[in-house]
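Exam review. A common question shows you a sequence with its structure tokens and asks you to describe the fold in words. Practice with the pair below. Do the first one on your own.
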Amino acid sequence: MDLEELRAHYPNKKKPIIVHSPTRMNVKGTIYIEEAIKSLVSKYDFQYIHITGFNHDELVENLCQADIVIDQMLIGSYGILAIEAMALGKPVISYIREDLIDKYPENLPIVVANRDNIAEVLKTLLENGNLRTKLGHKSREHVEMYHDKIKIAKDLVRLYEII
């Protein structure tokens, strides 16, 4: 990730904005996400934005406004959308398969959810603005440590020097 281009915009709204941007809705589990959203809309004051068909700049613009980003509920790992959202300082919800959790760094800031508990996970984040902000900072730190293109390039050069 180019962290110069993706400046952090930490969550800070009283009326949180939840963003979900599936490339393929059936693969990302959008149906489960939107069922959870529907179950919470009468109980919480938030805005939900479903982004499809936008170019990358428009997507990033919307991610900058988000307070919570939902990646996916079916794949079992996180991808580029989650990394970009974390770089922007956003808490990210995603399903991570149990057999993969220990393959990630111990401090992975992704809020792990699945199609059965996504509403409960969202409820926790909607009720706690401080937690959203704290996770946003941890998300940015994670991307700086593991996904920064400059850091990765330097690490790669060091590897080649060893070989």
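Now try the second one, then compare your answer with the model answer below.
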Amino acid sequence: MGPDTHGGGQLYGVVFTLVIVVGVMAMRNRRPRRLRLEAMWIRPLIFIALIGATFATAPPPIGALGIGVLALALVVGVGLGWLRGSLMRIEVHPETHDISAQASPVGMLFILAVLGIRMYLRSAAATTPIAGLPATAVADSLILLAGAMMITQSVEMWLRARRLLGEAKAAKTDGPTNTPIVS
């Protein structure tokens, strides 16, 4: 076995994983899915618990640079989450007030780009510290970025779905309409 065999295997593993992720995401996002406002708090709570448990088990490195990177990851994660959430199509049925959400193709490409960048940074940090940061600090910042992105996406979607539902209820009292409220 040559030295390239191990690296090639890792590359194939990453490509295989990306193909599976793309396939699952494409199948899942083909049709709109029902969105239940009353249960949208569960997903952010799970992510907060997972991040908290991860950091409680293995605390991130403390230091000015490490804290700065974590803060940057949090800010970037919130921004990316808001963007990803805003790319989701949300529709409220005018009569039943059922809410559905469907990911946009742009949103899917966006999350794939984030996953690719994350995989690249993770593998790069494993071999060489990035800007003097150890691999654990980079990994912790990626966990925080992903968690912040998912939590913020849920919050953005909840706020927008609640607003659209209010508009649909107001439109129903003003007069009947057959056009769904979409954002």
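Model answer, second protein: The two ends are 55 Å apart (CA to CA). DSSP finds five helices and four strands in the chain. Full marks require stating both points clearly.
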